Amino acid sequence: MSLTNSERAIITTIWDKMSMQADVIGTETLERLFSSYPQTKTYFPHFDLHPGSPQLRAHGSKVMAALGDAVKNIDNVEVALTKLSELHAYVLRVDPVNFKVLIPCFRVVLASHLKGEFTVEMLAAWIQLLSNVVIVVT
């Protein structure tokens, strides 16, 4: 799916604003994922999954770093996330459904941080980008 110039601008503007809080947003996204979809915990048996744990914060940072790579390479997400895709598909063998359920968790956390600034246009732009990310990673 191709992004319009307007969608690209929205995504990069929001990313610039939220990148300062990326670690917090990533952690909160994972916390929401694990509470809303407990079956996703099976991939993290070695993690302390309590809210705010160091392992959760570290992995949340990794998730957001990957998303940052997608934003920086917005026109070539596939190349930017190739190694991540191969790791999750062939080494870790993560069920692709897990990426699809991660996306709404991220959107809720993003909206909660942006509050009244989060518009329908922003939501639509992020849905496009995140859909592209899911396609690439799965």
Automatic annotation (TrEMBL):
Keyword Repeat: no
Keyword Ubl conjugation on entry: no
CDD domains, sorted: Hb-alpha-like
GO BP annotation list: hydrogen peroxide catabolic process
Domain of life: Eukaryota
PROSITE patterns in the cross-refs: GLOBIN
The protein's role, per its UniProt record: The zeta chain is an alpha-type chain of mammalian embryonic hemoglobin.
Protein name: Hemoglobin subunit zeta
Taxonomic lineage from the root: Eukaryota, Metazoa, Chordata, Craniata, Vertebrata
